[in-house]
Design brief:
Length: 778
């Protein structure tokens, strides 16, 4: 069985360096090579292109690296002097310009230096494999495939994997395993067709949407609002997406796809050189307007005096103007009645939505089986490659197959065979314990998730929760393991969540061996329900607020002292109280994209559910005698006072929120299965942890910590209220009126947390911060 232990990426541009960064994120050694620049000065390194690309990785935003330290996994070089570095690489990924002649010339160099059996792939976005492999040696054709990453490679989950006609099966199996497990990709096997799946449909959708916006007279704001949230598309919509990807790159992609597709393909209808889309882009490129990377596109940043504002392009005049509210009756209808209400609305927003959706759905359904044999593959590609909430066939179910049939007939378009075979039924059919999808022949087949990569929705299907309330539920996920699911808004923590945490910790009597805390939501938890807390403060309901704090402390302690292992499966934002849940777990399984921290000081309070206590316990356990007895308090103070938040799971480990024993799952689809496996691994010999004692340094250290905040305030780095918050925090972290000789129980530190929280809650500035945060909808 082939294995990938070292990788080379050839081409250090945006995509090549991004791919190399993600491989480095996975802890895998990677060689990054590029050409020697023409006419490079003698004083300049011959590997300057790859070296500069590596240097940019540290500063680039969005960050391609999960932590700056992973650059140690990257070795740079050039193809003339360092091609020998390819000899011990198991996978060589080419990521140069979309030109067949340049790519094939590079493959000859690679062939001269690679070891036998090493895998060679191209990151092409549109060129079929058959054209790339034409003329290559028989051995290289057997080891060759396309691995099409989406930009930026760290964040976009889709990887389209395309085999050549002669590609060995073990090459595809090896790439599939590595890209899935190590790089965290949703690997979709594609047929060897132009644009593969996501770009074939996505580029059509973008062109059709822009043409429809011109046709019906929408502003860029209106088009992006309609072709955004109501359709399950990211907030960029279509014009914002063009700005993001680069307006200058769109015409070549259109031309390339158009040139490779037959004249009868529906794609040709959106590539008319005389279309409004083409004329608009030609005019913009003539002015140097290429999107975000060029300082302006359909939107641009501008100054209004001292304020930074965003302006939008007026599609009629070609001039920039202030942003306008995209007020449309169709958007109001969509907010109440969903997608069907939007596309049936008679105003210009509804007509735009209808035209765009009918075009895209007609094209997607017509491409089965040309680009994929089943709807699910196409839906996965569009959701993970373009960030859509629903794939084309899930959208089709939302508007109804019969609706689309009528729309196609009204436009005298060819009826896709898939629509005819559907017979008016849905594409997806949901049973009590299964999901089925329509196949090529009009029959339904079950969708069976892998045993080691499933969602909570897969495990919940067909069963009732073990316990349930409005904010949380407990589910049996098999093998005597339960899962505590938060399902409040943004998974915020309220009394219902705390109640369910206490119930979950007492499930031993029902034969359960372990508990996982997690869900399918993008965020584990953004922390306490701040609306509830600020309401109690504003109403002066101090007794109720203190009971809420104590309830949280009880719930966290119950998890820590549960008679079975508790594993938190965290992903996305893990903030405040959400972080405290994870810190009280026996172990954590974190998705690589985890943004974790105790951020309470930002709203004028301190962690009061044991977050201070748990970080002190960790810092104390790691303390070196050389650093002295005050170091744990200082370390934790710096972390909490600054509201330090990790930029990834790797960064969370560096910050001390994750321990060395905690796991990291690169693929979000594997997170819950990995957490369950970790929980079962702890279950056999599990011992309930003993409560510990802490020797904290007392008031002298608290004064020193307070002085650091005062110094920051004097320099303008902290506000006046930060001194008040920092003073309360320093008292907790140094043990109040204690001294080093008197050990404190965990409950003593919890008392100090509660006292500090309640003291800060009574200040006007804390309420002001909370209301400001809520009003900004952050």
């Amino acid at each position: 069985m082939k294995e990938i232990r070292k990788v080379a990426v050839v081409g250090s541009g945006v995509m090549g360096s991004g791919i190399a960064a993600q491989i480095a994120n996975a802890g895998v050694p990677v060689v990054l090579l590029d050409i020697v620049p023409a006419n490079a000065p003698d004083t300049e390194s011959r590997s300057t292109l790859s070296e500069q690309a590596k240097a940019r990785m540290v500063k680039a935003r969005p960050a391609p690296l999960m932590h700056p330290d992973v650059t140690s996994n990257i070795v740079t070089g050039n193809l003339e002097d360092d091609a020998g570095l390819l000899a011990d690489c198991d996978w060589i990924c080419e990521a140069v310009v979309e030109n067949v002649d340049i790519k094939q010339a590079l493959y000859k160099t690679i062939e001269n230096h690679r070891k036998p059996g090493s895998i060679v792939t191209s990151n092409t976005s549109t060129i079929p494999v058959s054209r790339l492999t034409d003329g290559l040696t028989a051995q290289l054709r057997r080891d060759f495939a396309v691995t099409h990453f989406f930009n930026p490679p760290r964040y976009m989950r889709l990887l389209e994997l395309v085999a050549a006609q002669d590609t060995c099966l073990d090459v595809i199996d090896c790439l599939n395993r590595f890209c899935d497990r190590s790089l965290g990709k949703e690997v979709v096997a594609c047929k060897d067709t132009p644009g593969f799946i996501a770009n074939r449909i996505g580029v059509f959708w973008m062109a059709a949407a822009v043409n429809a916006a011109f046709k019906f007279g929408l502003t860029v704001e209106q088009a992006d609002a309609v072709a955004g949230k109501p359709m399950g598309v990211p907030a960029t919509g279509v014009f914002g997406l063009l700005d993001l990807t680069g307006i200058d790159l769109f015409p070549p992609v259109l031309q390339t796809l158009s040139g490779m597709l037959p004249e009868t393909d529906l794609f040709q209808t959106v590539c008319d050189p005389k279309s409004a889309l083409n004329e608009c882009i030609v005019a913009m490129l003539g002015k140097g307007l290429i999107g975000r990377k060029g300082g302006g596109g359909f939107y641009r940043a501008a100054r209004d005096g001292d304020r930074r504002v965003t302006e939008a392009l007026d599609l009629d005049s070609g001039a920039y103007r202030p942003l306008q509210t995209p007020a449309l009756d169709s958007l109001t209808a969509a907010a109440g009645g969903g997608l069907k209400a939007l596309v049936d609305h008679p105003d210009k927003g509804g007509r735009f939505a209808r035209e765009t959706l009918v075009g895209m759905l007609t094209y997607a359904t017509a491409l089965i089986p040309e680009i994929a044999d089943d709807p699910q593959t196409i839906d996965i590609a569009m959701k993970t490659g373009y960030g859509w909430k629903w794939g084309p066939f899930e959208l089709l179910d939302l508007v109804d197959v019969n609706w689309l049939r009528d729309q196609i007939a009204a436009r005298s378009l060819p009826m896709p065979p898939f629509i005819e075979r559907a017979g008016g039924g849905p594409v997806y059919r949901y049973g009590a314990r299964y999901v089925e999808t329509l196949d090529l022949y009009g029959a339904y087949k079950k969708i069976t998730p892998p045993q080691d990569a499933w969602t909570l929705a897969d495990r919940k299907r067909g069963q009732r929760p073990l316990a349930h309330n409005p904010s949380a539920s407990i589910w049996d996920i098999g093998d005597a393991v339960a899962c505590l699911e938060l399902h409040s808004k943004m998974n915020t923590i309220d009394d219902h969540v705390l109640e369910m945490m206490c119930i979950a910790s007492e499930l031993k009597g029902r034969g359960l061996r372990a508990l996982v805390i997690g869900s399918d939501a993008p965020n584990f938890s953004v922390g306490v329900n701040l609306t509830y807390v600020s309401g109690l403060i504003e109403g002066g309901s101090w007794n109720i607020l203190e009971r809420f704090v104590r309830h949280g402390q009880t719930a966290m302690t119950s998890l820590k002292m549960a008679p079975f292992p508790v594993v938190s499966a965290i992903a996305g934002h893990v903030l405040g109280g959400g972080c405290e849940i994870a810190l009280h777990s026996d172990a954590i399984q974190a998705h690589a994209e985890t943004y974790m921290g105790l951020v309470e000081t930002k709203v004028g309070i301190i962690p009061a559910w044991g977050g201070c206590k748990e970080l002190l316990l960790r810092a104390n356990a790691e303390r070196s005698g050389i650093k002295g007895p005050t170091q744990p308090s200082k370390t934790v103070f710096e972390k909490i006072a600054s509201a330090a938040t990790s930029t990834s799971a790797l960064d969370a480990r560096k910050l001390g929120f994750l321990r060395a024993s905690d796991g990291i799952s690169m693929n979000r689809s594997r997170l819950l299965a990995d957490a369950k496996s970790k929980a079962l691994g702890l279950a056999d010999d599990y011992q309930v942890p003993e409560l510990q004692e802490l020797n904290l340094p007392g008031p002298t250290c608290a004064i020193a910590l307070k002085m650091t905040i005062e110094a920051a305030s004097s320099s303008g780095a902290a506000a006046a209220h930060d001194i008040v918050v920092g003073t309360a925090l320093s008292r907790v972290l140094t043990g109040g009126d204690t001294d080093m000789m008197r050990p404190l129980k965990e409950s003593d530190v919890l008392d100090l947390e509660c006292q500090g929280f309640m003291q800060l809650a009574r200040t006007d500035k804390t309420l002001e911060r909370m209301k400001h945060l809520l009003s900004d909808r952050k």
